[in-house]
Design brief:
The chain has 345 residues and is an alpha+beta fold. The protein has helices at 77-95, 150-162, 323-326, 329-343; strands spanning 53-56, 138-140, 198-203, 206-211, 217-221, 236-242, 245-251, 273-282, 285-293, 302-310. It has 4 helices and 10 strands. Strands 1, 2, 3, 4, 5, 6, 7, 8, 9 and 10 form a 10-stranded antiparallel beta sheet that branches. The protein is globular.
Length: 345
Amino acid sequence: MNARYPVLILALAAVVGVAIVTIGAQQSATNVQSDSTSWTQTKTPWGDPDLQGVWRYEAAIPLERPARFAGRESLTDEEIKESQRIENEQEAQRLAGAEGAAVGRQSVAGSPIRGNEYNSFWQDHGRPRQILRQTSLVVDPKDGRLPFTADARKADERASARYGVGPYESYLDPDTGERCLTDGVTALMWQGPNGGHNRIVQSPGFVTILHEEYLDRRIIPTDGRKHDNVRQWFGDAVGKWEGSTFVVDTINFIDRTNYEWATIFTRPSETLHIVERFTRMGADSMEYRITVEDPTTFEKPWTAVIPITRLNDGTQIYEYACHEGNYAMTNLLAGGRVDAAKRTR
C-alpha cells in the first residue's frame, strides 16, 4: 500500500502540444543535442545565462545500464529506431488506458507493488519519451552501474523488499516518499512518478528550483560563497557560473540513513557531496550532469548525464496533495496492523 495521493489535475494537459525534439543519428552518447543550430544563449536582464522555465526529463534512458547492453555506452541507429517505435506504441496504449506489458511495465501478478502503485491514469508521460543513444544515465563508472558499498547494496535490497508491503508498526516504517517528506535531492531533476517537473526561477544572485513532487525547493546563491555549517535535508548548496554552465556544489546534509528510502541511492548522509552542472544546449534542451560522492553509500564517486526538456511557457506546477498532509498515516498504520494480525493467525 502506497500512501501518496496526487491531485487529479497533474500536468498531463500542460504538456499537450509541445513538439517532440528530433533525435539525430549523430547525437552524442553523453550530451544533449542542441535543438536549434541558430540558437544563442539568452541572458537575464542582469546578465546571467537564462535557465528559467519548467523542465523535466522526457527520455527513456535507465539510470543503470541493463545487462543486455553490458560493455556498450551507446545504442545503434537501428536500436534507436526500434526502441522509439515501441515507445510510441506504448504511449498510445497508455493513453488508451492499458496497463502491464502493453505499456512497458511488469504485470500486477509479477510485481504487485513496485512499478504498479499507480496505474497509467496517474503517470504523466505527456507524450512518447525520447530514445537517445545513452544506454544508461550513469556514465561513470564506465560499466554504467552504481558503485554501492556492500552494506548499501544490502540496504537497497531491503528497501525493495519492504516497499509498499511494510511492516507498518511505526510512522518511521513508510519510506520518506510515502511520508510526503522527499525522495531525496539526488534525483530531483529527473525523477518523479508524475513527470518530475522542475520550475527554475532566477533573480539577481540566486537560482531557485521548485520540484513538483512534495513541492521540494532549493534556493541557491550564485556568488560562489563559502558553505555554512548548518546541516539540512537538502544540504547547503552554493552555486557559481562557469561560462554558460551553472555549477552547484552541495554539502552539509543531515544524516538520514536510518530512515526508510524507496531508493537507497537518493538517501543523504553527513558525508554526501553533490556537484551539479546545468548547461543550456538549445531553446528547449539542457544537459544536467550530476556527480555524487558519499563513502557511506558508494565505493567511489559516480556521474550521471541527464537530458532535460523545457516545456511550453504555459506549463504550470500544480499542488501535490500528498495524502492530505499525512492525515492518511493513521489509516496506513491501522491497516498495517490488521494485515500483521492476519499473518499471525
